[in-house]
Design goal:
Structural class: alpha/beta
Number of helices: 21
Strand content: 5-15%
């Protein structure tokens, strides 16, 4: 095929796709050769090649065939520097004189939603992607935010509150094929969302060392977008975020209410989904509960797998402490813990895992410095401030009052014999909270709830515990009430 023929094809494509789309996607590519019925083209970047292949490949092939070119497929490869400028044959109607200087960027309104910035003119090969877009080459660095080497699947303690999230994360980390798009993990502070995000990235990197894995926080996404706008460098921004194999965004609630950032995130999300790339996102709430999040984004986030990481229970907290204790024992081999210390911490510190692990680390350091065995009394002495902040000084009267306010019930109804579900379920929730947040016995709680038998209280407590595992709304109600009571 001659340059003249390719020039004719380009003129036809201009009429079909429009000026803006042409300048953004067709103009930067250059014909290379026909080889074994494959038309080879050079492109400035892999991103442009992927986009043109997916969106205009068939169209280009049809126009080549109409000019008698015997090709069955088209292939795009990144050109050596200068190759595109040397081989391009832009139609005169589009760029009459731009062999030495780049054409000015057109208004960013091409038809595809993701194409919101024009590509450089043929005479200028696009700059290489920023370091954030490159695969990891050494150490424990990955594109985007640095990963914590301690946050792996091996160091993640699994319990009932997080077993579904852990299983979903494991599944995503097993393959580059899209599993759930997106996988959305949400839950309160210190429940393991970021740990699972890092673990997925580490596992994928180990399995697929050549894959481009971009992990960063939503705040970092926003800062990069704002900087790209300020420096008029949106093309490289899009290249960075849309040429990855896996995009992982932590704390997505940060962009709620930030209109421009949300719009760019929406286009990035759509572009990656269309290209079959995996997306993993975390947030502190379910997408539908983020009031300032754009409805389009909330809808997209819910089209994959949304997993709630429930608040920790006693067994999970104890498991975390035991795992952490094994790790710290290697650093402090002379530190000894008396029986019952870990159990005491798991019972008293229920706010989140980070506080729990921090308390244990402090105990190890304290015992190592003063050469004392860690007993319950030593723990109380060393962790006075932590225990004071998490001390359960909640009364049953406060629990009943807050529960009634939360569910909009009268206190007289809550402790009555009324068995309607709208009253019985909040009553069981109040029983559960009394058992978890106070030191009262079951008979004492039963007396507070209209003289009920202790077996009735035990049934109510276990019923809420069971529902928390199956119903995310019940789990959220329990967590919100606990926070209100302990605030």
């Amino acid at each position: 095929m001659t340059d003249e023929t390719w020039g004719q094809v380009r003129n036809e494509l201009l009429q079909v796709v429009g000026r803006n789309n042409f300048k953004a996607w067709i103009e930067p590519i250059a014909f290379d050769r026909i080889d074994e019925r494959t038309a080879h083209f050079h492109v400035p970047t892999g991103f442009i090649g992927s986009w043109v292949s997916n969106n205009f490949g068939d169209l280009i092939l049809r126009h080549l065939t109409s000019h008698g070119i015997g090709a069955d497929r088209v292939e795009f490869t990144v050109a050596p520097r200068g190759a595109v400028a040397a081989n391009s044959a832009a139609p005169a109607t589009v760029a009459p004189s731009h062999a030495a200087t780049p054409a000015p960027a057109p208004a960013p309104r091409p038809v595809p939603e993701m194409a919101t910035a024009a590509a450089p003119a043929p005479a200028q090969v696009a700059p290489a992607p920023s370091p954030a877009a490159q695969p990891r080459t050494s150490g424990n660095e990955l594109p985007g935010a640095k990963l914590n080497p301690a946050l792996t699947f091996e160091n993640f303690v699994v319990g009932k509150p997080n077993e579904l999230a852990h299983a979903a994360a494991r599944r995503v980390a097993e393959t580059l094929d899209v599993t759930f798009n997106p996988l959305f993990l949400y839950g309160g502070v210190g429940l393991g969302k970021t740990h699972l995000m890092h673990a997925i990235a580490w596992d994928l990197q180990d399995r697929f060392p050549d894959a481009k894995i971009l992990y960063l926080s939503a705040e970092q996404f926003m800062h990069r977008f704002v900087r790209a706008l300020r420096e008029q460098d949106t093309f490289n921004f899009k290249e960075t975020f849309r040429s990855v194999d896996i995009l992982m965004v932590d704390d997505v609630q940060f962009i709620a209410g930030k209109t421009s950032t949300q719009q760019e995130f929406f286009h990035t999300f759509n572009a990656l989904v269309e290209m079959g790339k995996q997306i993993v996102i975390s947030g502190d709430r379910a997408p539908v509960d983020m009031e300032e999040l754009d409805n389009r984004i909330a809808s997209r986030l819910q089209c994959g797998l949304v997993v709630d990481i429930h608040p920790t229970d006693y067994e999970l907290r104890l498991g975390v402490l035991q795992h952490k204790c094994e790790t710290l024992s290697a650093r402090y081999p002379h530190v000894k813990f008396a029986d019952g210390v870990l159990q005491y911490l798991a019972q008293k510190i229920s706010s989140n895992i980070r506080v729990l692990e921090g308390a244990l680390t402090r105990l190890f350091a304290f015992a190592d410095l003063v050469r004392r065995e860690v007993t319950v009394d030593v723990a109380k002495e060393c962790l006075t401030d932590v225990l004071r902040a998490t001390d359960k000084k909640v009364t049953m009267d406060e629990i009943i009052k807050k529960t009634c306010e939360y569910y909009k019930l009268r206190q007289v109804d809550l402790i009555s014999q009324n068995r309607q579900r709208a009253i019985a379920r909040p009553r069981q929730m109040a029983m559960y909270l009394c058992k978890r947040l106070t030191q009262r016995s079951l008979p004492e709680i039963g007396k507070k709830f209209g003289g009920r038998d202790h077996t009735t209280i035990l049934y109510g407590v276990r019923k809420i515990e069971e529902l928390m595992q199956a119903d995310s709304q019940i789990a959220e109600d329990a967590e919100l009430l606990r926070r209100l009571l302990e605030a």
